[in-house]
Specification:
387 residues, mainly alpha, 60% helix
Length: 387
């Protein structure tokens, strides 16, 4: 689960290599051309106003991400973990920024970009630490701040947890707008989606609800209902309230079985080794992109390489029948990029001995994946003959 969360976080950060920071660019454009108030950078009022304004914008963006189906499709990956720890905070969507940035745009008419950028990062950093079960309740702070206890409720799939506690930094917004719910000691939180994902594949986690919506759109009758399916809650059906009926949510209670498919130790060592190698390559690409403008091909090649690896690891964890064959293709492509794509060695900045070491690892891995692929194909065709 931790590797799956880290993989989702890497995909989110890699998407910024392609999309860049359009939110900050748009904010700066509005401020430079349409601001109605010139606030000094030294103004204390500006900093406090931005703290409250950004957090209020986050509350509404987050709420819409839960209560509008097409935006839930992006946000649901963050709730797909059945564990709750600091890695869960990294389980982010590559598409969510596309639907949430305009909730902050009104600030651009009054608040300088410097304030906005600082508070966006502080707000994000604050939310990282509240993804934990280590802390219980924090006394009087529970009335004002979003705490680990409040956010545990938000990540729950018990009925009393659904669509509650949208706060980023200040829980006062939930108290004001009627979406607050306290954690119950007599009904421990069960984490995850109402309909569990049952997969460690990060690409599947990013895309699964979009696929569901696609088929649901053609399945549901009436043009009006099709449109409502997109803008109403994810649990909505024709004839129901906008966010659906709470009675349709499974009435579950702790404890609940978790999705768990273990790998034999050699396979686990293999996947973890290549995952760490992928993380190292990911770090190199991110650092390189900050100092050098990558060509379009290099950007897409780097993102594609990391995505391919993370998807392959997820398939292996899921025990997909043709995961070894997919992994073999990934290894061969990696060897090709390492030796025949000049950009690969430039970004990685490896000495010749390093190139040989990585090549050796890939060659051994390719042999292992080939053996597993042949074995898997033999099993598949043996079952086919029996049937």
């Amino acid at each position: 689960d931790g590797i799956s969360s880290l993989s989702a976080g890497m995909l989110d950060q890699m998407s910024r290599v392609i999309f860049l920071s359009f939110e900050a660019t748009l904010y700066a454009m509005v401020w430079n051309n349409y601001r109605v108030w010139d606030l000094s950078v030294e103004s204390r009022f500006g900093w406090w106003a931005c703290l409250l304004g950004y957090d209020l914008g986050y509350y509404f963006a987050h709420r819409v991400g839960h209560e509008v189906n097409i935006f839930w499709a992006a946000h649901q990956i963050h709730h797909s973990s059945e564990d709750y720890n600091l890695t869960t905070a990294l389980r982010q969507s590559i598409f969510q920024k596309l639907g949430s940035f305009f909730y902050y745009m009104p600030l651009a008419f009054f608040i300088p970009p410097t304030h906005f950028l600082v508070h966006s990062q502080l707000n994000l950093l604050y939310q990282f630490w509240i993804h934990t079960e280590v802390f219980d309740r924090l006394g009087p702070l529970e009335w004002i701040l979003n705490t680990p206890s409040h956010h545990r409720v938000h990540h729950g799939r018990n009925r009393y947890c659904i669509d509650k506690n949208y706060a980023g930094f200040l829980i006062i917004w939930d108290r004001i707008f009627g979406t607050f719910e306290a954690e119950r000691s007599d009904d421990p939180v069960v984490y995850g989606l109402v309909h569990p994902l049952d997969s460690w594949n990060p690409l599947h986690a990013q895309m699964c609800h979009y696929r569901y919506m696609f088929w649901r759109f053609f399945e549901i009758e009436g043009l009006g209902n099709k449109f409502k399916m997109l803008i109403n809650g994810p649990g909505w059906s024709p004839g129901q309230p906008r966010t659906g009926c709470i009675e349709d949510i499974p009435d579950i209670h702790h404890p609940q079985p978790k999705f768990d498919r273990t790998l034999p130790s050699p396979f686990l060592v293999y996947v973890v080794t290549h995952f760490l190698l992928n993380m190292w390559i990911y770090e190199k690409i991110i650092l390189f992109s900050k100092t050098t403008i990558l060509s379009s091909f290099s950007s897409y090649a780097g993102v594609g390489f990391i995505t391919l690896g993370l998807t392959s690891f997820g398939m292996l964890f899921d025990h997909r029948p043709f995961a070894p064959a997919f992994e073999l293709c990934r290894i061969l492509l990696s060897l090709g990029l390492l030796w025949f794509w000049e950009g690969g060695t430039t970004v990685l900045d490896l000495p010749r001995v390093g190139v040989y070491a990585v090549t050796g690892l890939y060659v051994v891995s390719a042999y292992s994946a080939l053996v597993l692929t042949v074995r898997q194909l033999s099993v598949h065709y043996s079952k086919k003959k029996v049937n």
